[in-house]
Amino acid sequence: MEARDSLPDRLDQRPAVRIDLTNTTGFALPTTNVTPSSTIIASLEAARDARAPVVLQLSNGGAAFFAGKGVSNTNQEGAISGAIAAAHFIRSIAPVSGVPVVLHTDHCAKKLLPWLDGMMDADEAFFKEHARAAPWKQWIEMKIGITGGEEDGVNNEDVGNNSLYTQPEDIWQIYQTLSPISPYFSIAAGFGNVHGVYQPGNVKLRPDLLAKHQAFVANELGSTEPKPVFLFFHGGSRSSVEESQKAIGHGVVKVNLDTDLQWAYLGGIRDYSMSARVKAAFEDFKAVNSL
Question: Has 106 been annotated as catalytic?
């Protein structure tokens, strides 16, 4: 394993190249939140079967879970140890998966990791604080506004729908501030998206707003490029195929998936467990009848 300071030289261009290709090919990087090692393997196998690259990311809570409930998370020790352990595991298994793999952190708010935000929230940090990350050439995500629902200890379930839509002026402010520092960034613009499970009709996704955001930035730049901004999609679970395709068509290069995968994981364990229990019950019944 290389020393930390040497990692950017090896890894700097690969995520950037993949993200740049997604914006020109109408493909978004599937991004799965992983917790135990089995979810990592499942994500890699799904990516292999789909012949697609994949982003594997850990939230603060997910990293702590990877370390195990027996590890104290005082001073974030559990989350830090879990994130490092997961990174080692992924780096060991990814080369034989047959697909490109990118490591990422999800919702690393400054209040949790004060020395560096893995994903910057505009209301938690000043832009200039992150200029020091530019030489690392690490990809940084900037979430603007609010994503509804609840995830990783951040609860926005009571937020009104109007607060879930980002304004184009906000995106332009981020773009013109970060562009001189580094090209390695993407923006999560709220277009009605929500974390977690929600009832149909309760969420109004507006992927058409992303096209207007792109046009606004292009106009400010005086550019003919139709999609100058790399956008990413938080709260991708339970979104329809049509909504996702429209968002990708308007410059979304990365889609986060968590809740849907948790339910699929739980369902698989439940079905396997129930099948085993039913089989055991029938075996017991047969044994009783043979007496």
Answer: yes
